[in-house]
Design a protein that fits this description.
The protein has seven helices and ten strands. It starts with a strand and ends with a helix. It has a single domain, classed as Uracil-DNA glycosylase-like domain (Uracil-DNA Glycosylase, subunit E, 3-Layer(aba) Sandwich). The protein has helices spanning 60-63, 76-87, 121-138, 147-158, 169-172, 197-209, 216-223, and strands spanning 5-6, 15-16, 46-47, 53-57, 91-92, 99-100, 103-107, 142-145, 177-178, 183-184. InterPro entries: UDG_Type-4/5, Uracil-DNA_glycosylase-like, Uracil-DNA_glycosylase-like_sf. Residues 44-170 form the Uracil-DNA glycosylase-like domain.
Length: 224
């Protein structure tokens, strides 16, 4: 077992990366709760804590998990992304709690909100340090942001490319973008996919998996 000890801003004590844990492996706690007493507070990061691929969604209201506690479950968009993960070999087992290998999933806004509500800019800002801490603890090589909000955040925070790129998800979809220590491959919101979008992201992931992608991190550090 590999153990990594980190201090997270806003937490009172060190937390451990216990790799056997698939859900919330670092014991993060959301800073606020606006849901009812019998409703889920948050959809925490989930998957292989030693993964090289990191799938990044928006919030539970868009990409799912309010009923299962697992990102990318229970919504049209979430199910489409999970289907891709299964096709390229990242996911197996039950749909509501899949077994993930070499893939970790989380949201830039992990907290659940009452039905019909969406996070405010302040809400996103409140949770940014939690998302960033978990992403850096996982230490993945390939970042896969899903949708415009997640892609915008990842390009701004983890690459030097945002000012050079239009946030046109149809053009960014399945494209490789060098970042500061990462390779970023944006994924267009599945509800907006057109004829070849699904095939394009499957082909891109299979191509990356077929090469020595673990060298990406060093290359991206010098190029991004």
């Amino acid at each position: 077992m590999i153990e990594v000890i980190m201090l997270f801003d806003g937490l009172s004590s060190p937390v451990k990366n216990v790799t056997e844990r698939t859900s919330n492996p670092f014991g993060l706690r959301p800073p606020f709760d606006r849901t009812g007493p019998d409703e889920r507070t948050a959809v925490f990061g989930y998957g292989d804590a030693n993964a090289d691929f990191y799938l990044i969604g928006d919030h539970p209201g868009v990409h799912g998990g309010t009923s299962t506690g697992v990102p990318f479950t229970g919504t049209e968009s979430g199910d489409a992304i999970q289907d891709i993960a299964r096709e390229v070999g990242f996911a197996s087992g039950p749909e509501d709690r899949p077994d993930l290998e070499n893939l970790f999933c989380s949201y830039i806004h992990m907290c659940c909100l009452p039905a019909g509500e969406t996070p405010s800019e302040e809400d996103y800002a409140d949770l940014e340090r939690y998302f960033d801490a978990e992403l850096r603890a996982i230490n993945a090589h390939i970042l896969l942001p899903v949708g415009e909000r997640a892609t915008d955040h990842v390009l701004r925070e983890y690459t030097t490319q945002r000012d050079r790129l239009d946030l046109d998800m149809a053009r960014l979809h399945a494209r490789e973008i060098r970042g500061r220590g990462f390779l970023v491959v944006p994924i267009r919101e599945p509800t907006e996919w057109e004829d070849t979008d699904r095939e394009a992201i499957v082909a891109r992931l299979e191509e990356i998996l077929g090469r020595d992608y673990r060298q990406t991190k060093g290359v991206a550090t010098t190029v991004g």
